[in-house]
Design brief:
By secondary structure, this protein is α/β, with parallel strands linked by helices. Helix content is 52%, strand content 11%. Pfam families: HTH_11 (PF08279), PRD (PF00874), PTS_EIIA_2 (PF00359).
Length: 662
Amino acid sequence: MSILFDITSRQAKLLDFLSKTEEYLPAKQYADYLNVSERTIFNDLDKLEIFCKKYNLVIDKKQNQGIKLIGDTSSSNGFIQKVITNHKAKERDALSSLERQILIAKWLLINSQTVTYQSLSLDLYISSSSIIKDINRIRSFMDEELQLVSNAKGTRVNGNEIAIQRTIKRFAYYLIEKELNNNSLSTFAHILEPLFDKKIIKAVYDAVIEFLSVMENSISEQYIKSLFISILILTERSYRGFHLTKLPEIQLEGAEYLTNYPLAIEMCSKISSELQFEFTELEHHFLSNQLFAHRIQVKINNKQVEKLISEDIKDMIRGVSRAIEIDLKEDDRLFDSLIYHVFPMIYRLKSAINVYNPLLNEIKNNYGVLFQIIWYSMEKLEKKYDIKLTDDDVAFITIHFQVAIERKNQMSQILVVCQSGLVTSDLIIHRIKNLLPSNIQFRLIAKPLLKSEDLSKVDFIISSVQLEEQTCPVVYVSPLVRDSDLKKIYAYYLKYSSKNRKQEDVVLTPHLISKYINSRYMFINEEVKSKEDCLNKMIQRLEEDQIVKSSFKQSVYERERLGNTIVQGWAAIPHAMSTMANETKISIMTTKQPINWNNETYVSFVILLAVAEEDLNQVRCLLTHLYKIIINSDRLESGQSFKSMTTPEDLIAILLCKDKIQ
């Protein structure tokens, strides 16, 4: 790799100083200028000498006279001058890794430029090692249909337009999730300004806002935000001349998604007239499909939709009902909500459109067993429609089932208070109603009326203003209700509405443990270096004993690619499709040192599930118990029993010791 890539900021400043100096100066003067030792100066000069030779420059050192740069710094294709020019732009020195990643993503993905590591080092004024890390971070958002390719001309992305736009959307959500205050559509637009052209953001934002103002039915804000980002990416790429050449291959017989085509034409017309360019006919169809996938429909024959997937939904409900031993088959509201959710979801996943669920981790942590059961129960749907479910989608469906379970119990009551009792309270309810279970009864009340209110049947209060001491819990939120506020409300719901829920007393017998957990598939204090080492070792043992099919390993890794299997930030529960297991076994590994499970999280406790279809009902009890261990991780981590485990028998003893995990 060229030494140009590895010039540090200090060495660039030294080169700048040398280029301006017309006489020989002693090393001490250079050292004083850069506030380093003379030895450091000579080390830097040795490195710069190799670089300068490439461009016919000489660092001349004369005894008793000093050091001087000899040669024309404006020659050599301007590379030396570019180093110095970039050095003068001192603000570039302050770029964070995220800011660099935004610029690189914009060049590679938005503009489809070919870049070189040399040009990136010069433009961003950083070393090659930092460039490599930034490139790898951007690469992590790509799937198998998009690759980074390099040749003599440089590095560029190679893949179809749909794959490029899909990657841009993942990167856009990555930027949004970095910001705590990302609750409103206008805030989304502002966060994305470094990545997209501001005039394009404004044109798309105005078109979406105008469209929403004439919609009769309320639309989930998560779908609105996802739609906004998709239209923004389509517009930015089309405006720059990068057009779609094909649509995703989707076969949903009877789907009336083209009813949105006139609306798509209208939106495209508004945006294109503002920006003075034209969408292609294919892009009109693509936007029409996006509107349908995000549940935005002028009119749809619900009876026809129901006919298309009703048996699939009924089969799903039957499967989950059997697994959780709660009969939900007669719950019409559950059936209707799943019909409404699943049909567009199928189309959306066929189109490779993902929707972000801000409560994903909370749902996985608090309803982990139900979450896993739904994954398994939806395998038939995945196969039939050739789709791959994401964690976000399973979490949304988990909410529907959890709501149905809780409908069998008393309805929760939550009081929403603000100064006026009107506008702000309405905003709070609008923000949370699509994310919390629908069995909650919200009641609006102005602060002055709270004194005379009977709170005996209220689970807790949500307030945007400070209240006097109350007899029931109060969760305070911002009037704008940020995502962090949603998580607080959700935590209060779990804690203070628990009296309305059926508490299942899990009884774990030695027989159940011995049936599914065997010491042969337990690995204690393993010295593994990576996630791959961990999974391969566990899977190999299962394959040796023909517990799983040969395709089990591929299914596990496919599941890992689709979503995050981490729970509580320190444990992982990878699994494959149930059809990949010949029989049910649960493999467990504890690691001597935490291993990197994804880009940012390390785990030390791994539960690999190999669950056969016929055993899903029986392992529910065991899964519930294992989740309790993970959820109570703080107590376990601080207890001697967990840290001192040296054998599989030690872990089994913890599993059987019920008082340790309650």
